[in-house]
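Example complex used in Figure S2.
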Amino acid sequence: MTDTPTTHVVFLLFSGITQLDFTAPAQALSRMPGAVIAGVAAALDPIPTDSGFAIVPTHDFASAPQADILCVPGGHGVADALGDTATIDFIARQSENALWVTSVCTGAFLLGRAGLLAGKRATTHWAYTHLLPLVGAEPVKGRVVEDGNVVTSGGVTSGLDFALTLIARLRGDAVAQAIQLAIEYDPAPPFPGGHPDRAPKAITAGLKEHVYDAAAARMEAALSSA
Amino acid sequence: MTDTPTTHVVFLLFSGITQLDFTAPAQALSRMPGAVIAGVAAALDPIPTDSGFAIVPTHDFASAPQADILCVPGGHGVADALGDTATIDFIARQSENALWVTSVCTGAFLLGRAGLLAGKRATTHWAYTHLLPLVGAEPVKGRVVEDGNVVTSGGVTSGLDFALTLIARLRGDAVAQAIQLAIEYDPAPPFPGGHPDRAPKAITAGLKEHVYDAAAARMEAALSSA
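Predicted assembly (452 residues):
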């Protein structure tokens, strides 16, 4: 038998993170043989999430291990994080020696601000895909989009599909299938419309009007400022 | 316009929780209008999860709000929690006035130990369904199983389907559809086999041999002790 390699998976944590962008891929990747999960933030204080509870970072920027897989989640906190030099520097520094540079949801824009999506095919949450050219990326339809060692995924729940895809790449299909079965990932969404291509038009329109038009404008403003 | 009712959603947290059992439904339910999420543990110290990071409880057992929705997640820590009187008492006490008594994955056995599944149709993680009669429940196939105000769901990732189902029940289909679209829950698992009914037989057999035969035996022993 060959030894299982150690794979350091480094997730960025920040205030206002959409916690499932982190917790779903962390669940799958933590079961990958050899994986060591780190949740890294600017400081070690608990990170408030969007879901009413806080997560404790395992490391701060200074003490973080070098990532084999760097993963940047999204959330409403991304617009503020885009202006935080220490955060962007951490992403840029880690990416230099990471084997895989990845994002879930609007985490793509933090990769982009760090210069990692220039000329890359990429995706993000459906309500923000039109902003990807602002970081030099080419928006591509797809729940998980690969371009070289850069893997971006769609909104929130796509992180699970992303993680299993990456596990299959790193450890083979059988390992990924076993993890998928262990977490009983046999989804049965109660409605068919988890993407605007399939959702009732009124649901999409209402969500844009009440949430995403303003949120996307805020992201655009943050991306357009130096 | 009518006022949106406040709905207290109380999740039990305990050492060795499968964090996605909690974080996935918390993500969906936190976006339900009027929802207030609590993560409640015996004490306020951070709770180590199975995925390499810790979660901070919002309340301890004494300070927890009365649940409208009580939700008990699962995990390898369930076998120990079954023997913890304070935990079982908390579940029993909260359930008396909860509108909905629910579980994800092996959290069902904690509901069962508190006497809440006697004579009820229920489900749990696929590797443990045969143990449901030990708490007086009737195992039923289904990713989300309702019996009166008791709602149990299957392994780990089923918590998302459970939460959206409950949101539809409480606030209507349009609200649940909007949340499903907001979290882009349009799953695309890389493999078809997230349940033994659909997984390659060798994958299921390997997982049972290496993980679940021992884990189910440990659960059975914990359920069989007084």
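Residues 10 and 130 of chain A are 27 Å apart (CA to CA). Chain A has one domain: 7-190.
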